[in-house]
Amino acid sequence: MPYDVARVRATYPALAEGFAHLDGAAGTQVAAPVADAIAATLRRAVSNRSAAFEPGRRAAEIVAAARSAVADLVGGEPAGVVLGPSATALTYVVARTLAQSWRPGDEVVVSRLDHDANVRPWVQAAEAAGATVRWAEFDPDGDLPAKQYADLVGPRTRVVAVTAASNVTGAMPRVREIADLAHAAGALVYVDGVHATAHVPTDVAELAADFYVTSAYKWSGPHLAAVVAAPARWESLRPAKLIPSSDAVPDRFEFGTPSFELLAGMTAAVDHLAALPELSGAGAATPGASRRQRVVAGMGVAAAYEAELLKRLLAGLHADPAVTVLPAPAERCPTVSFRVRGQSPAETAAALGEQGVCVFSGDYYAYEYFTATGLRDSGGAVRASIYHYNTAAEVDRLLGALGSGS
Questions:
Q1: What is the pLDDT of residues 45-93, one digit of tens each?
Q2: In this structure, are residues 33 and 265 in contact, taking their beta carbons and an 8 Å threshold?
Q3: 196 and 107, same structural domain?
Q4: End-of-domain residue from the set 235, 270, 305
Q5: β-strands 20-21, 81-84: how paired?
């Protein structure tokens, strides 16, 4: 069935301003049900968590609902969902906690394809423990070959950190193959799903991820994040924490009082994704389907629609002799980085911005990628990222602006 993007766009109030938001990799616009849930929470009596009175019980219910929603989004268990302000903050918590048991001679494996949020916390934790850092390299085609991990992991490997999708090119490494190699050596696997979760159905069990981190603001939600693991995995870990704070799992990994209104928005964002098939006219929900089943269907609908727009974008960019597209394998998320001859990436992004086309430039925190390619010192690249509310007309608007000299 056709995808009714107009109906989808109508649920995003900010799109009415007329900008072409091809900047989803840096954060999507917020769906109306998300804004409504946040506002409704702020308008009602919600106190800090307490079983003694109703406003305190409401707060506890909001937290529990957010855990359940994230679990449905990625295929985890609510009791294994740790909530926090950002993927970076949560990854630091996990890295520092795991590193308590590391010793000199232990090893961690990171990749030069990753966002620095899944590199620097591990590198710094390894340095503090006297452990060794080993690097997985991407190839000239922009892929991260899984077979190299057979040589990178060994009996002293403690963690393998890898992205599920590059926030530069959208390249999607074969995480399951990498995880199987890591597990065979006795290592844990930490997967950065921040970019991937917004574009493809996610199943942490299929990925064999011991930890999976995602950020709600990349999938129509507020600025919050979650890292998901089996509850038993969290039970074995003891983070640094305040003495009076809860020692239960997953609470002991969450510092301070959470933003209850934003957690309500996080739940609403998952519900919005679950409604995409019906909302877009691409299909009706199966009677009795669980939210998990509806989310998987919704993300499948979004992925198919985005893939068609990606083809259109790539064809247009490759047809422009002034544009150089950074390489990526065929299996990718709908994200493209490029450079325009005779312009710095910042100049291209600014010129496009003047025409109402929102794209990013620079290294997008993919520090190792742009250092390895030699592009960082000259400004990185320009990034266009498609989301399920974008249109063919917006892709053409970007291509037309480039064709007119930006």
A1: 999 999 999 999 999 999 999 999 999 999 999 999 999 999 999 999 9
A2: no
A3: yes
A4: 270
A5: unpaired
Element (DSSP H or E) covering residue 338: strand 335-340
Range of the domain at 366: 5-31+291-403
Quick count: other Cβ atoms within 10 Å of Cβ 180? Answer: 14
Contact criterion met (CB below 8 Å) for 390 and 199? no
Max distance between CA atoms of the chain, in angstroms, equals 68
Task: Looking at the structure, tell me whether residues 266 and 365 fall in a common domain.
Answer: no
Of the candidates 27, 22, 26, 13, the residue with the CA atom closest to the CA atom of residue 309: 22
pLDDT per position as a tens digit, 332-357: 999 999 999 999 999 999 999 999 99
- Partner residues linked to 381 by β-bridges: 362
Residues 41, 11, single domain; the answer is no
CATH number of the domain that residue 172 is part of:
3.40.640.10
Rg (C-alpha) for the chain, rounded Å, is 21
* Order of strands, sheet of 107-111, starting from the edge strand that comes earlier in the sequence: 81-84, 225-228, 211-215, 188-192, 157-163, 107-111, 132-136
DSSP states of 26-50 as a string? G-PPPPHHHHHHHHHHHHS---SS-
- 14 alpha carbon, distance to own chain's centre: 21
Residue 285, in any domain of the structure: no
